[in-house]
């Protein structure tokens, strides 16, 4: 399916990135660099304009008193919510509508080497978010720290390899790991809006657990096995002229033409993707059980105490302020469930 992005490639931008693309073998990057840039600018606009305006209008009592670090945290959660809703919708739409992508179900080489405009667009828009993520983390390094910087760099690098093209078919699949992110963001906002432990957060928590389990642990691991299967074949068998020109293939030769001069994928690329994926899937299992425990704790009544000591008002205020500012991160995560005022690295 052809790229449906409403704005076509910008010649000057494509020309500017061409040397970089040739040096690193990212053949289709010039066709999609404008989508990356536009997406990054869009998310920047949401962060510096949309979030402050809406937050000051709807929750001024919460947003206005925040310091720089807390506003950066809040605004970044707004961006994360917008991005997750947008990119998940596009990924699902692509998987259900793109007939060329459906035709790849019977050809593992097309799933590895094939190129389609719309799945590549989805990956480009995701890369735009990761570019924004990297820039905002660098600009607020004192707030977000080295962990989120490493996350931003690695996420951008892994998705950028798709512009070889590589795993174009699986791009929307990887995006669907983020179907749980809107619920994670909602959990974070419930806490900040004083709705901790309420019915809305309870039902959101149930939906979060169900979505996380079904999308990451079941569907994610199942599709990971297919990725390993296809990539292992691609280590030993690359595109051939006969495969590119195959008149019996369901898809037009243009889907395969980009890979005409490619060979088998390098072993290091296979190891990189498999290692990263195994680590992520293992962490997903760990996080899921921590989520279950955290949700239970959030809604179980606190144990009764026989004797309480009244603390001075100043001490309570100081303690709450310290807890609220002790650890600041900027995207909703499964570990948001562990502390009301703490959020850690976003799961990607």
TrEMBL record:
> Record keywords: Transmembrane included?
yes
Topology in the lipid bilayer is annotated as: Multi-pass membrane protein
Give every TLC domain span.
Answer: 69-300
Q: Name one Pfam family in it.
A: TRAM_LAG1_CLN8
Q: Where in the cell is it found?
A: Membrane
Q: Name the predominant localization.
A: membrane
Coiled-coil ranges from the UniProt annotation: none
List residues traversing the bilayer: 36-58, 78-97, 112-131, 143-163, 169-190, 202-222, 267-289
Alphabetically list the UniProt keywords: Membrane, Transmembrane, Transmembrane helix
Q: PANTHER family recorded for this chain?
A: CT120 PROTEIN, TOPOISOMERASE I DAMAGE AFFECTED PROTEIN 4
What protein name is recorded for this chain?
TLC domain-containing protein
Instruction: Please tell me the species this chain comes from.
Output: Sporothrix stenoceras
Instruction: Tell me the lineage of the source organism.
Output: Eukaryota, Fungi, Dikarya, Ascomycota, Pezizomycotina
């Amino acid at each position: 399916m052809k790229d449906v992005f409403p704005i076509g490639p910008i010649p000057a931008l494509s020309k500017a990135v061409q040397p970089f693309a040739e040096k690193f073998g990212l053949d289709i990057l010039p066709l999609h660099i404008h989508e990356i840039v536009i997406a990054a600018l869009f998310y920047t606009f949401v962060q510096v304009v949309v979030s402050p305006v809406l937050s000051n209008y709807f929750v001024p009592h919460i947003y206005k008193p925040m310091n720089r670090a807390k506003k950066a945290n809040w605004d970044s959660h707004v961006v994360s919510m917008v991005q997750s809703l947008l990119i998940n919708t596009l990924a699902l739409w692509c998987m259900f509508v793109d007939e060329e992508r459906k035709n790849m179900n019977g050809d593992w080489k097309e799933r590895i080497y094939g190129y389609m405009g719309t799945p590549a667009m989805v990956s480009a828009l995701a890369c735009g978010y990761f570019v924004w993520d990297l820039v905002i983390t660098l600009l607020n390094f004192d707030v977000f720290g080295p962990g989120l910087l490493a996350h931003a760099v690695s996420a951008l690098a892994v998705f950028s390899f798709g512009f070889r093209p590589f795993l174009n078919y699986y791009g929307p699949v990887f995006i669907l790991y983020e179907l749980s992110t809107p619920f994670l963001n909602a959990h974070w906002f419930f806490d900040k809006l004083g709705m901790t432990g309420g019915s809305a957060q309870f039902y959101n928590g149930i939906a979060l657990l169900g979505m996380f389990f079904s999308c990451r642990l079941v569907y994610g691991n199942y599709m990971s096995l297919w990725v390993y299967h296809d990539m292992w074949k691609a280590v030993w068998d690359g595109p051939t002229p006969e495969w590119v020109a195959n008149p019996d293939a369901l898809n037009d030769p243009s889907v395969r033409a980009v890979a005409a001069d490619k060979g088998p994928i390098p072993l290091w690329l296979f190891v990189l993707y498999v290692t990263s994926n195994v680590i992520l899937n293992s962490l997903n299992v760990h996080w899921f059980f921590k989520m279950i425990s955290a949700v239970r704790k959030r809604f179980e009544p606190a144990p009764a105490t026989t004797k309480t000591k009244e603390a001075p008002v100043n001490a309570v205020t100081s303690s709450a302020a310290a807890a609220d500012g002790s650890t600041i991160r900027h995207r909703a995560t499964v570990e948001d469930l562990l502390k009301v005022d703490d959020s850690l690295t976003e799961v990607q």
